[in-house]
């Protein structure tokens, strides 16, 4: 008989939290009891889950007593305070914020890539950045077969990565453009930055604030997280992260250099057998990944694979995935499933 677990969801009303709830139901995660935790402001409000109505409780340290798995998606400041408290009370925390990702004591995990790192956890496991997840999921089988020395990625990221409010702002801006009204921008490229720009009919080459080296925090996340997940500190990685007027589904143009010479067909063959990857690459029929078709799908889609014209060991790939699913909620639930299968829960 499958072990029944007590699960807590912190931030269930957000874009990622609601998807976590959907995935728990869809994947039939063995829930004995479930509780939904939020700020005092939201405590007492009803929330629907799997046909039943629950009452949101205030997220306090004591609320995690008896919890086996705590899924966090309520912002880094909340995780910083409450994740250690939950772990202290025996819960395994799977945190979807960036707060713990680069902590050397915290595993940063994509199950298809570095599942073995789960055994090293000390109560908290970090879910990687959405753009990092889909990229390493596609690149790991290539790295394992041919080696990997360099990664250059440009992302085309959907507004849902910035939350429900960014989705609503895109819709409002689009409607105002069409109606000839003034267009307001209050959220993108970064809520805490000095200036904001419309995303409707636009492309913004900034996600998150800039660091001192000219890269944004989002770009540095991709660079550092990729090296940590792949256990490859020597890997050369560079990223340019761009926000586009798409609701859901991140796209990435990725250039890689491998150690062993291979061919496009060699890359095809590896990806055909890779877990969680769907190869969509047939230029004769214009078959390639697009976010409009990836939305709501669990897989990471890869296509437009080409050998570089100047470097036999260089290849270009196009990678697309639903950023709220494999890029966030689904990966979190897969971490919990892997831990259950590996007797870590």
From TrEMBL:
Associated pathway: Amino-acid biosynthesis; L-methionine biosynthesis via de novo pathway; L-homoserine from L-aspartate: step 2/3; Amino-acid biosynthesis; L-threonine biosynthesis; L-threonine from L-aspartate: step 2/5; Amino-acid biosynthesis; L-lysine biosynthesis via DAP pathway; (S)-tetrahydrodipicolinate from L-aspartate: step 2/4
Function: Catalyzes the NADPH-dependent formation of L-aspartate-semialdehyde (L-ASA) by the reductive dephosphorylation of L-aspartyl-4-phosphate.
Residues at the active site: 130, 250
Annotated phosphate binding sites: 101
Key words of the record: Amino-acid biosynthesis, Diaminopimelate biosynthesis, Lysine biosynthesis, Methionine biosynthesis, NADP, Oxidoreductase, Threonine biosynthesis
The EC number(s) this enzyme carries: 1.2.1.11
The UniProt record lists the keyword tRNA processing: no
UniProt cross-references to Gene3D superfamilies, sorted A to Z: Dihydrodipicolinate Reductase, domain 2, NAD(P)-binding Rossmann-like Domain
Quaternary organization: Homodimer.
Pfam annotation, one family: Semialdhyde_dhC
Sections of the chain in a coiled coil: none
Residues holding NADP(+): 13-16, 41-42, 160-161, 323
GO molecular function: aspartate-semialdehyde dehydrogenase activity; NAD binding; NADP binding; protein dimerization activity
Keyword set includes NADP: yes
Organism: Lysinibacillus mangiferihumi
Name of the featured protein: Aspartate-semialdehyde dehydrogenase
Catalytically driven reaction(s): L-aspartate 4-semialdehyde + phosphate + NADP(+) = 4-phospho-L-aspartate + NADPH + H(+)
Family: Belongs to the aspartate-semialdehyde dehydrogenase family.
Single Gene Ontology BP annotation: lysine biosynthetic process via diaminopimelate
Residue span(s) of domain Semialdehyde dehydrogenase NAD-binding: 6-121
Residues that coordinate or bind substrate: 157, 243
